[in-house]
Amino acid sequence: MTHRIAVIAGDGIGTEVIPEGLRALEAAAKRFNIDLDCQTFEFGSCDYYLEHGKMLPDDWFEQLKDFDALFYGAVGWPEKVPDHISLWGSLLQFRRQFDQYINLRPCKLMPGIKSPLAGRQPGDIDFYVVRENTEGEYSSVGGKMFEGTDREVVIQDTVMTRTGIDRVLKYAFDLAQTRPRKKLTSATKSNGISITMPYWDERVEAMAKGYPEIAVDKFHIDILTANFVLHPDWFDVVVGSNLFGDILSDLGPACTGTIGIAPSANINPEGKFPSLFEPVHGSAPDIAGKGIANPIGQIWSGAMMLEHLGHQEAADAMLKAIEAVLASGDQGVLTPDVGGQGTTESLGRAIAEKI
Amino acid sequence: MTHRIAVIAGDGIGTEVIPEGLRALEAAAKRFNIDLDCQTFEFGSCDYYLEHGKMLPDDWFEQLKDFDALFYGAVGWPEKVPDHISLWGSLLQFRRQFDQYINLRPCKLMPGIKSPLAGRQPGDIDFYVVRENTEGEYSSVGGKMFEGTDREVVIQDTVMTRTGIDRVLKYAFDLAQTRPRKKLTSATKSNGISITMPYWDERVEAMAKGYPEIAVDKFHIDILTANFVLHPDWFDVVVGSNLFGDILSDLGPACTGTIGIAPSANINPEGKFPSLFEPVHGSAPDIAGKGIANPIGQIWSGAMMLEHLGHQEAADAMLKAIEAVLASGDQGVLTPDVGGQGTTESLGRAIAEKI
Ligand SMILES: CC(C)[C@H](C(=O)O)[C@@H](O)C(=O)O
Ligand SMILES: CC(C)[C@H](C(=O)O)[C@@H](O)C(=O)O
Fold first, then answer.
1. Topology of domain B126-255, per CATH?
2. Is B185 on the interface with A (CB under 8 A)?
3. What pLDDT digit, counting tens, does each position of B26-40 carry?
4. Do B226 and A250 lie within an 8 Å CB cutoff?
5. Do the Cβ atoms of B254 and A191 come within 8 Å?
6. How far is CA A95 from CA A89, A99, A137, B163, in A?
7. What's the pLDDT tens digit per position in A95-144?
8. Integer Cα distance of B157 and B176 in angstroms
9. Which CATH class is domain B1-101+263-355?
């Protein structure tokens, strides 16, 4: 059985880490006898926008919908195209149109990586952020009035549906079931955001009734970010709205040393549409073109993709290879962000060889 | 000239730290010959709600509006009253009705306090969060539809006005002017929140034109929280919307060791209405009644109040006393959260004596 993978590198360091992601995937495919058919697409980048006046061709949905997965780099280059145009024109389209309503992001302190938190060792930080990925604060409803005057006002609606909340909660509770600690933390802000967030809390309570073996707690997002820093060991599975999940899944990886290595999966659990796998980091215009971007986020995203496609063993091997190369501390191989003098390519090659 | 201060202790540890805040204020008033007339109010607590069915009497505005300042503990006790009712019925009313549109929160690593961030020393972290305090994501517009069905949907409007944004930006830029580094960081999320946040960015750019000597940058809130952990030394004055400011002003103090000691000022800069001074921490039902709450957040808020009332010298003396007692490391005096075996009272007395 062949898995058809659409590859979209996007902008900036996206174009640099994608080749290393593919190198590692090929190594894993070879070792575990997996048949991957990767097809590269040029659209979904700011350069494409500058040429075509849009981020994606009109028939992107048709072109991509029958792939088994999307392997995605990073998009955005504010000097070329404003972020809200490039992102809403690409990544956020995929998430919404392909109903990738789960954004799953592991936060794990890896061997060889120094946490910015004092005294934390690998094993101390190991949790998942499960983020709602299609609705909530990322809304397309709203507008501006009294433009150009002192009365100018902008309004944007946060929209949450029972369907949207319940399905992400179900996924998070199910995930918590598979974990030894069986713990779920809900991110809320029902003391300040007085309409949507109390509703979110209600749905968490309702869902919890069906999972009596899960220990459930909740924190307001302000103190929750504080607790990520003060008590990262408290967390097992953390579930949040689109915005809160976004924040927590950058902060969590930062607590594990570098967001350069964090992966993510945008999942349509029913498999009706392709899921999308991408590093948490962005296109990083500041270091683009230098060949020093850390490719681990991309490679690890590839591992999540193989897991999603049913190849758990291959995914484990990829993760072990990442851990082994990080633990080696080999300065000539590691990229500068993790203390080495190596390049995107040297690190990518070392991991592919280990696989 | 007498300063009339309304004192509202609220719930939980609010009632425990307020007396120590007052003790320190009295000491400072005595030493610097300041005439403070403090009047205590029972309303604004969940117990008041249980008795009266509301958090505040109908004439609270009349009762409080002529005070020079409000000295406020903490409110909320979810087992008695849901948070969104207790908070919207009290603190959030004050902020909005008294047009306290600035929420100012220093994040400063103090001597004797261990930062959870590896290798950070006092002096490394020293910035202000300036938070918009009356509009934005904390909105009272929205509702629920299709209740009780699978189609159930909740909507809440984020509302931002040019007036509301510009005045908080102006305050933040003015504050940055007074600081040696003259640096301002704006919290945004214009890549995902595509209507309100690009507008916020626009207003920042417009305001920046009037302050050519200020170095301005912006980060999306997700990576900004990561940078608080990875590079807290980057920041000088950070300005954000109501929600983003809320998050950053818990996370910032967490990076400085304990949110138990962080103060805040809710300011109406024009002095048309009283400003409100309160610790960043909440009512902490889990440790309430044990007499171990750290009173420094309350005392430091008192210092901010004296500064606001024009008594800079007295405010400085209070802050120095806090620093001296913290630096002493006296286990018998310090509360457990900062490594001692003392009580709220022992720590409060020690600071008052130093003043
Ligand atoms: C209690 C809550 C409503 C409040 C807020 O979110 O503003 C608090 O977190 C704060 O920061 O003062
Ligand atoms: C680029 C941006 C729109 C995106 C988001 O906010 O979802 C990114 O931060 C992410 O987390 O994938």
1. Isopropylmalate Dehydrogenase (3.40.718)
2. no
3. 999 999 999 999 999
4. yes
5. no
6. 11, 6, 14, 35
7. 999 999 999 999 999 998 999 999 999 989 999 999 999 999 999 999 99
8. 31
9. alpha beta
